[in-house]
Specification:
Blueprint lengths: L1 E3 L7 E3 L6 E6 L4 H18 L1 E5 L5 H4 E2 L28 H6 L4 E2 L5 E2 L5 E6 L5 H4 L4 H7 L4 E6 L4 H4 L6 H7 L6 H9 L1 E2 L1 H15 L4 E7 L9 H14 L16 E12 L3 H12 L6 E6 L12 H14 L4 E5 L3 H10 L4 E3 L12 E3 L13 E2 L4 E2 L10 E3 L7 E3 L5
Helix pairs in contact: 1-8, 8-13, 9-12, 10-11, 12-13
The structure holds 2-acetamido-2-deoxy-beta-D-glucopyranose (NAG) (3 copies).
Length: 416
């Protein structure tokens, strides 16, 4: 089989003959996006009978063990195609083939086009209406015939697969409990490498294992002007006190005898150290009313996100995994790290509402409706009329808008 490098380029690259059909996942954006899209691509491959291969990118092999014994999901390093060249402008993308009429949609809705050795599917948050047709039934009937599919995505797109009537019956059989989709897939697919597992277990044994109760707080600040660090620290304290996740301090008493049976460890994951300092000081300066022994730990504070830096990603992955050992989680609006931790843990977190204009949001936090991650940029697209603005959160009862990102959609347990 031959794979053209790009439209109009006469150089061609040999690909192995396709005995199976393949999906090649390519790495794009940060670690959180990688984990969410690997899971999405895996589920899609399962539904469409494809073997999934992983284009390893910079540090994937340093972070994860292979999920399947005696097999590899990695594209061989000597593979003749550079999958990183694919992006939105690429004319071998499904969306652009529709745009330029290489593939067409008949008035009957049937999708037709020439036999192609491979197709590129562009699914980043900046995808357009042509790209979004990926989620439509007639388009999937066409795409299933492509021997090779190359995918670039940055979102957890599973909820939109449930909106596809071809996939929905099988998905409902696989996952009777809808909100556990990512929970099962993440535990099945993502095994920390030995290096990361060493970091996880050493930290756990040193700082977390003695706590009878474990509270994980994950704080991500997207905009320091709208969400100043001091305000977010107040907010995290307000949320945890109000929801009874941390014990109230006894301002009127210098001493409360400690109840050594009641130990609480707080694990804080953040790029900044302010939050753990604040909470730690609060329980150092004052006793708490129940005499609980509260210890506060933060593995790292790197100050800024270093996407693609291997050492940073090792720590970030270890911290996500450590958070997943918590009994209760508080996470930040729209944070992929939070989504992965809550999915691995199998719990619904409290979400810190994103502050605007430097003001404390009211309420400071709210309970998430399900443990499954939010698909931030779902297709607001109507397959039948080929137009925008069909509300993807209103089609079936168990796919609703996310509380933290209202334009997004997510799977919830309710089926009534
Ligand atoms: C893709 O095809 C269109 C129409 O044929 C053309 O105008 C455009 O320049 C091509 N883009 C690239 C990146 O080759
Ligand atoms: C949390 O913030 C709200 C609104 O500002 C305030 O009314 C409430 O007393 C605060 N609660 C705590 C525990 O700080
Ligand atoms: C702590 O637990 C022990 C053993 O269960 C019990 O005897 C003791 O009364 C408990 N102490 C407190 C302060 O609850």
């Amino acid at each position: 089989m031959l794979l053209k490098n790009s439209e109009g380029d006469s150089s061609v690259t040999p690909l192995p003959p396709a005995e199976c059909k393949y999906l090649v996942w390519t790495s794009y954006n940060g670690l959180g996006n990688h984990i969410l899209t690997l899971a999405s691509a895996f589920l899609y491959s399962l539904l469409t009978g494809r073997v999934m291969l992983v284009d390893r990118g910079k540090d994937l092999t340093a972070l994860f063990c292979e999920p399947f014994p005696d097999a590899t999901w990695l594209v061989p390093t000597n593979f003749p195609v550079d999958f990183q060249v694919f992006e939105s402008k690429n004319n071998q993308s499904y969306g652009n083939m529709l745009r330029y009429g290489k593939i067409s949609i008949a008035s009957s809705g049937v999708v037709t086009g020439p036999p192609l050795p491979f197709i590129y599917v562009h699914m980043t948050y900046r995808y357009d209406n042509n790209d979004k047709r990926f989620f439509c039934e007639p388009d999937q009937e066409f795409l299933v015939r492509m021997p090779w599919m190359v995918l670039k995505a940055d979102n957890y797109f599973v909820p939109a697969l449930f909106l596809n009537r071809m996939f929905e019956p099988e998905l409902s059989r696989l996952f009777p409990d809808k909100e556990t989709v990512f929970h099962h897939m993440s535990r099945y697919l993502f095994h920390p490498s030995d290096t990361v597992w060493g970091m996880i277990t050493r930290y756990y044994q040193s700082y977390l294992s003695m706590g009878r109760e474990k509270l994980g707080i994950q704080i991500r600040i997207f905009n320091k002007d709208e969400s100043p660090l001091d305000l977010v620290a107040d907010q995290a304290i307000n949320c945890t006190l109000r929801e009874g996740l941390l014990p109230p301090v006894a301002l009127d008493r210098p001493i409360v005898s400690a109840n050594l049976n009641n130990t609480k460890v707080v694990l804080i994951a953040s790029l900044h150290s302010q939050f753990s300092d604040r909470i730690r000081n609060m329980y150092w300066e004052h006793p708490n009313k129940g005499g609980a022994v509260v210890s506060v730990h933060q593995p790292s504070h790197e100050e800024w996100q270093q996407t693609g830096s291997e050492n940073h990603d090792l720590k970030a992955w270890a911290e996500i995994y450590l958070l997943s050992f918590a009994d209760v989680l508080v996470t930040s609006t729209g944070s992929t790290f939070g989504y992965i931790a809550q999915g691995l843990a199998g719990i619904r977190p409290w979400i810190l509402v994103r502050p605007y204009g430097g003001k404390m949001p009211e309420p400071a936090c709210m309970r998430e409706t399900s443990m499954d991650p939010c698909f931030h940029s779902p297709p607001w697209y109507d397959c039948k009329s080929c137009k925008s603005f069909s509300d993807p959160g209103k089609e079936i009862s168990y796919v609703t808008h996310c509380r933290d990102v209202p334009d997004g959609i997510k799977l919830v347990g309710r089926t009534d």
